Every structure is written in C-alpha cells, then in structure tokens.
Amino acid sequence: MADLSSLADDVLADILLRLPSPEDLVRASASCASFRRVASAPRFLRRFRSLHAPPPLGVFCCCADGSAGFYPALPPHSSALAATALAHTADFSFAFLPPPCDAWLVRDCRDGRFLLDRALEGSTAFTEVAVCDPLFRRYILLPPIPDDLAVSVENPYVQRGGDGELQSRSSEIFLASHGDGSISDDDRPFTVIWMACCRGKLVAFCFASESQQWRELTPPKHYALSIRRVMGVRLGQRNHAHGCFYWMVALTRRWLVLDTQKMEFSIVDISLVLSGRAMMFSNQITTLESRDGKTAVVVSDVFRADKRCVLYFYSFTYFSDQWQLLNRIILPEEWGYRFRGITGEAEGYLFIKLDHARENLQDQIERNVEYFWLDVKTMQLESFCRTNSLTVNEAYLYCGFAPSLSLPSM
C-alpha cells in the first residue's frame, strides 16, 4: 500500500504545478511548511521550471562611452515589480569582482549568470574570465586556457571594438546552457565556449565547470571560413535556440552553427530566405524557440524603398532546405528609421531595439534607446524598457535568476 504522506505530496505537487507564475509559487511556499517542503524539492523544481520559462526582467547595456548598467522592465510589463527590486538589490557594477572592477567587461548573460573578462598583460588574445551572480555577489574565476591548446591561436581577428580601443577583444566567449535540467544540486554546473577567428580558420575551446578543464572543439572545414585570408573570418551577432548557437559568417549568406548537445560545428546555407533582401547587419536575422520544438527564424527587411520595416517569420528545420514562411509583420511606419535590430527573445516575445525619435534629437533628456517586446502569437507591441544613453554597443536580455537562486524563499 502506498505511503499516504507520499501520495498527499504527489497530489499537492500536481496542484502547485498549476500555479501561473514563479511569484505565486513563492507566496504559496511561504504559507506553510508542507507547501515549502514540496515546492523546494529538486524533482518538483525541475518540473516547474520546464513549464515556466524564466521571466524577462530587463536589459543590460554596454554603451559607447564605456558605461554599463541594468535597465529594468517598466510598467505595465508583468515583470516590472520584480525587475525594479532586482535593480535595487543586485550589484550590476560588479564591484565584488577582483579589483580594479572597471577593467572587467561583460561578454554574455544567460540563465541569470554573467560572464565577464579583463585583459591580461602582454596578451592580445587571451583574457582572465569570471562567471558571476550579481544578486548574491558570488563569482568563479576560470583557469587559463592551457599552453598546449592556446598555441593553436594565431593572428586572431578582433571581433568587438577596434585594435586601438582599450576594450577590444579577439575572442568570442559566451555561456551555454548545461544539460537537460536533471541536475538536482543547488549550484548547477555551467559551460563556457571560447572562440577565436584567426586567418583562414576558427579555433574553439570548451570549459566545463564540473571538470574544471578546457578542451578543444573541432571546427568545420569549409571554404566559407577562409574566403578572406587577408581579413580573417568575421562573425556576426550570436543567436541561440534549442541548444544551438548561430552566427552569420561575414561576406557570405551562411550560418556557422554550434550544437552544444553534441559540441559540434557545422555550416548551414541560408541564402534561400535572404534572397532579394539587403543584409547590411548581422542582427537582421534572429532565431527563437518554437513551442513545438522547432526553431523559428525572423528576418528583418529594413532597407526598403518604402522606408518600412518588415519582419518575416520562418520555420527552420536543422540541416534541411525546407523553410516555411509562417508570417509577415509590417512594423509601425515611424519605426522605419529607428529600428536597430532584435536584441533577444524570451517566452515567445521578441525584444526590438529602437533609436530615439527624431523629435528628441535636440533634447538631452529624451535622447535614449528604447526596447519594445513583440508577442509573436498575438503580434501585440509594447514598450519594455529604455536607456538614458545615446549609443548602446552591446545589449543582453536578462531573464530569471541564477540556478542557485531558484528555490522559493521566505
């Protein structure tokens, strides 16, 4: 005969899974000890996370003047209250990192964690790397890439900034989601990918927090990676969906793809959906996760004779030439000259970056960069947040909290 207490916990878990948001789960778990016991169980949390994606809380921006900061979601967005509380509590100056703190540069944000690096003396390619949690002010310094691996990095091409800039970088470094959510401990592991585009080749390494070791990844052998041996390979904006990362390879109409489940690279030809459209910037193409497990691709057509901005939504099947046009959305007319690409996606929303309006060009207070969200299902547009800076070099959509902070607390 089944243990009645276990049966009661199973029934209670099924009820709590039906709560509409993580905030409701926190309130429920604070109401009594039995609710908290069920809600804080690792197995329950894995099930709840699979049903409730982490909410978008704001945008972290790195600006042209060297400043950086977190800009929370504004009302009436449902995350506004939590985002404001986060902005007041977390340390987005990263002053808890080893000094001097202004030497650190934000390179990525994923699953509530931030990845930062700072230049190493005497090195133009390699940096000191830290993974941190700005809410609880905790960080981990990664060990340097071993010499036997680093020797393969020759004449790396600068990916961000210019050769004469203090904050220039020769590497593409980012966080990858780890595993399938089956890890039950509080501090779930993470993976860091480090890439350098050298003359005629790509070099990539992977760091796993479990082993505390770097290993080399095998890049694809494809002529698209060596079409400009003098210039070197140049990668565009990084996109992500269903465990795969995508980059436009400059001067081509191809994607470089990294499947982080297999840790394998490939090249995908996407010229079919780009035909007839002027692709001046890499952020004109974005990937997002469809709930049916497929990858949706959004192509922004902005260089049009009518000055309008049109978004084309496609269903993309990996390693297939089958591209299905799902929808075509014409953005508001006044956005034609303000549209500056798509920053990211979360929970079925696209986050669109707009420059300041023309009427605010002479107003120092109103000159800012604004972010809107677009509900892909209903095509509803709404303001998400805005910055007080004229020029944003990099923007990272901040969703949820670090895995170690996911337990409901009183």
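Above is the first protein from milestone M3; the second protein from the same milestone is given next.
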Amino acid sequence: MIGSISLSAPDFTFHNGYCRALRVCILALLILLGGCANLSDITGAHFTDLFSGDEDEVEIDEAELAELQTLAPIKLLWQVKLSESKTAVFLPVYDNGALYAADEDGRLIKLDPATGREIWRVDTKSQLSGGVGTGGGMILLGTYKGEVLAFDEAGNALWQSQVPSEILSPPQTDNGIVVVRTGDSRLYGLNAADGKQIWSYQGVTPPLTVRSFVGVSITRGAIFAGFPGGKLIALDLFTGNVGWEATVSQPHGVTELERMTDISSLPIVDENQVCAVAYRGRAACFEISNGNQIWARDASSSAGMVMDNSHVYISEEHGTVAAYDKSSGAAVWKRGKLGSRKLSALMVARGTRLIVGDDQGYVTLISRQDGSLLSRAPTDGSAISSRAEYLPDGFVVQTHKGGLFAFSLQ
C-alpha cells in the first residue's frame, strides 16, 4: 500500500511512482551454512572483499606512490586514541560545538574540537556497532544486540530501546523521531522522548547481500534509504509509510553473486533531487517529490557519493574518484592513482576541495574543479572506512585502529 509523505518548506507529496568455479563453491558453502539470510562478514570488510584477485584489479606501481610523496602535507591539529574496531565502522560527529566519538569496546567520548581535549567519557558497558548519531540534544549509539542507547550532551543516559537485530550504522533523529536501521535492512521509528517503537518497515531482501554499514538520510519529514537489489525508497518520517520506490540498478547475471547490486551507501539529497549509487550497478538521480528518474549512468561504488551546487562526486571501485554534472549525469572528470584501491566516502570541504580516506590510512585533498591532487597526510596505517567529519578549523577522521586525527584546512 502506498502512503504519502508531506514535506515542509516547501511541501511535496510522494506517490508510487559466471564467476570462477572457486567463487561458486564458496558461495554455495556460505549459503548452506547461513541459509538465505544476510551473510556475516567473516573478515570485517564487505562480503565481496572475500574474493580478491579480480581480473580487473590493478596493482599500485612505484611511480604512483612516488608522485603521491611529492604532495604537500596536511597539517595535523591533534590526535586521540580509542580502541581498535574489529568489524564495526564508526563516524565521529561534530554537533553543537562539540565532537563525539565512540568505539567498539563501548566508550563514548566528548571532545573539544579545537584541541582534542576530552570533556567527558562514558562506558556504556555494551559492545557498540553503530554510531555516532546526534540531534535534538541527544547522542545515539547502536549495539550488536540491537540496543539503541540515548545520552544527553552531558553524558547522562536518557533511555535504552531494543530492536530485533544488530545495528551497523548511526541512529538518526529528526522532528522527535529516532530512525534506526538494522543489519537485515529493516527500519524502525522510535519516539525520541522515551525510545518506544512507533513504526517499522521491512523491504524485500535478495538471498545474497553485501554487509553494509549504511544508514539513512532524513530531510523535511522524509527518509531516503537504499536497499539490496538496487532499490531507493522514500518513507514518511512520522508513519514509516512508503511514498515512492525507485530502481537505481537492476540485478544482472546468472548467479546470486553476479546479481548483487546493493545500495550500500547513503543517498544524497538537495532541494530538488535525491541521488544514490549501487555496488556493481549504476548511479542515478530522481525528483525528490515523486521519484521520477532525472538521469542514470553506469557506475559502481560501495562507499558512496556527495554533491555540491554543480556536481555529483563518487568514490568508485578500484580507487577512482569521478565527478558528474548534477543535472545531466554527464562525466566531468575522473581521477585514479590515489595510492589505494579502496577509498572511503567523500566529504565536500570548504573552498573547492574534496576529502577522501583510504584503506592505507591516508587522507587526500582533491580539487573539485579538475580532480587534481592537492595534499595528503598519513594517519596510523589502518583503514579509514567512514567519511571525514567537519570541524570549524578543518576535519577529523577515525581509523580502524581507533585513531581520531584532526587536520587543518587553512
């Protein structure tokens, strides 16, 4: 049944609008062991990372690394150490003049964003798997046991709620509703005052999916979420009713492995359109009011995309960053040779720059105008899987080893 979504300022109404033999053997074994549920992530990376040595994988040569070493360094402001993350991906968040970060061992900390000085620390006594989300004076976390934990800005516990399965992304809140996405791609709307469940949504899930740490995007009373099978869904924030459903990418191929085309990154939204990109699929933009397609083009990304006033930028597979015209999808520029074949999500920085991290622990600044490399800095050598986060004087990233590194953009 199709519901409706009313958005304020302005108002909108939503409506319906082979692989090699070894791979097949591994896939069959995993399905026999796990049934038709979402496959567990054995190594802590995406399921597809189990299959290394793809025919189209390109080695990083010495000339590429030598060129990167000539880039100007990015100034480090401060660094803080949390615990190593075995499987979870955490995103530090700047909100209301403070920086919040968490780790898998259950620590939540509040920091001075200018100096990295710790203001307070809370031991949640839980194994955290999703965070940090903020909004409405709350700091929100998720656990492997499906617990949603809410704290105030002083670190006091507000409430705890329970959903049926693990939470792999930061809970989000807007207009008195906390939206939680679980590892099986279900969505839950909770009352922000007490954590009680208001609504739930479950879409159709293919037999085989990528283990994803993606959450949801919320704007003006609507939730936008990408799902396995290449679907983009718009839901009403207050009721969970579906406003429209659009197809970003259609599954292709014979085996379930070949047919994986999951949206494993956040949709991006502006005043007029919402865009998403699928792993092994396409990138596409749709009218925000009704889900009608504006443009689509072949692209593949598990990290995701960002946009500015003119362009959409995608962290594509095999270490490539590409820019496309936001209104037409026309290619503008493409840049590889970033020293890694697995990039993080991008961040649009002040001026004309993009920030990207990689699985070698480097952060790189790229020109939004032509894709040229501007500057680069190391962290602790471990992967940066989540996007950089804004700070008043620069940006901060969190590594898999638990390092928080703040850099200047001056």
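Note on the second protein: Confidence is low (pLDDT under 50) at residues 6-57.
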